[in-house]
Amino acid sequence: MSLQSDALARVKPSATLAADQKARDLKAAGRNVIGLAAGEPDFDTPQNIKEAAIKAIMDGKTKYTNVDGIAELKQAVADKFERENGLKYKPSQVNIAPGGKPVIWNAMLATLNPGDEVIVPTPYWVSYWDIVAMAGGTPKALPTSAATGFKIQPEKLEEAITPRTRWILLNSPSNPSGAAYTRAELKAITDVLMRHPQVWILTDDMYEHLVFDDFEFTTPAQIEPGLYDRTLTMNGVSKAYAMTGWRIGYAAGPEELIKLMAKVMSQTTSNACSISQWAAVEALNGPQDFIKPNAKLFQERRDLVVSMLNQAHGIQCPTPEGAFYVYPSCEGLIGKTAPSGKVITSDMDFCNELLEAEGVAVVAGTAFGLAPHFRISYATANSTLEDACQRIQRFCASVA
């Protein structure tokens, strides 16, 4: 008899974390490895945020808090949504969780029953599919392609919705593709959703501030007020504020849903770290002037990586609108032979052979539901990215 539960058997370990850990292990063993697997800004957390955390410690704010967040942070989140997105929420409509994943988990566990379907556009962030499955729902892929800019088409969304559809998960800008929906593209999607009142929307806006080329970010409830009462708008401080390890995600939505999510938290994680919550208050309420310069640096890195990858034999790399990932195709190398003598039959083979031959760790597109692609995180120094891309070019040139 297996020790593993049926619920856990439906889940795969995170491929991004696994690839990042493998790179760390090889480095520890003395290999010259460049890890481009983890989605983590290389900037340090701003000083004023760190000082707010220290002050919280010194002031003794180290006890349990309300299960789904301190009042001050809930208010800061509500203020952020009104200031930046034109969305009005009361603090009672806000959920504070120990990271973005728990926000999604709380919402799915609170609302899904066996047989409920959740539409997950592909390529998707690796955790979406497995969180839905572990929560007892049925994830349903809605494929996209490079030809459509990795964006779902309204007519395909209409076809995918059934009477059992409970949620759709939207992520713009996207992890892994970096694709971001324009206002017009998002309006076409919300028009479809307005015709299906049983479908709720979870929009993951974690990369909101990392958009390029004068792209204007918008979010579904902002585009279509008629969806306000069935939209959970999720965000966090990890990416824009370089606070990945602080583990603070947040969301706002209908009060009934927020109460259900708090109920889940009361018997799972309980509150997010009190010190991190106070740091997040400062992040949201404090100076925001570093965000645009950081985004400009990411745009420069994007341009460097896209240009160099498109010079690699057999690689095609679209230009993303945001986030800090590219999602190139390696289809041109499938069926060819790597320097090791192994025939590359999949994107997984490509990634393994690249790591073995040149010491560059990337994540296979299979993990994101769309192959043959691979994901590169360019959240690292230009010199490192240039070195990595030169290695990729060299590897691709050696494949025959």
List keywords for this structure.
12 strands; globular; Aspartate Aminotransferase, domain 1; three-stranded antiparallel β-sheet; Aspartate Aminotransferase, domain 2; 14 helices; 2 domains; alpha/beta; 400 residues
Task: Draw up the topology in text.
Layout: H1 6-9, H2 15-28, E1 34-35, H3 47-58, H4 71-85, E2 94-97, H5 100-111, E3 117-122, H6 126-134, E4 138-143, H7 154-160, E5 165-171, H8 183-194, E6 200-204, H9 220-223, E7 231-236, E8 249-252, H10 255-266, H11 274-285, H12 291-309, E9 325-326, H13 347-358, E10 360-361, E11 363-364, E12 374-377, H14 382-398
Parallel strand pairs: 1-10, 3-4, 3-5, 5-6, 6-7
Antiparallel strand pairs: 2-8, 7-8, 9-12, 11-12
Report on this structure.
The protein is an alpha/beta fold and 400 residues long. The chain folds into two domains: 6-44 and 290-398, Aspartate Aminotransferase, domain 1; 62-285, Aspartate Aminotransferase, domain 2 (3-Layer(aba) Sandwich). Helix content is 40%, strand content 12%. The chain is built from 14 helices and twelve strands. Strands 2-8-7-6-5-3-4 form a seven-stranded mixed β-sheet, with helices on both faces. Strands 9-12-11 form a three-stranded antiparallel β-sheet. Helix 8 links the parallel strand 5 (165-171) and strand 6. Helix 12 runs parallel beside helix 14. The longest helix is centred in the C-terminal third of the chain and has 19 residues, at 291-309. The N and C termini lie far apart (47 Å). The model has no long low-confidence stretch (mean pLDDT 95).
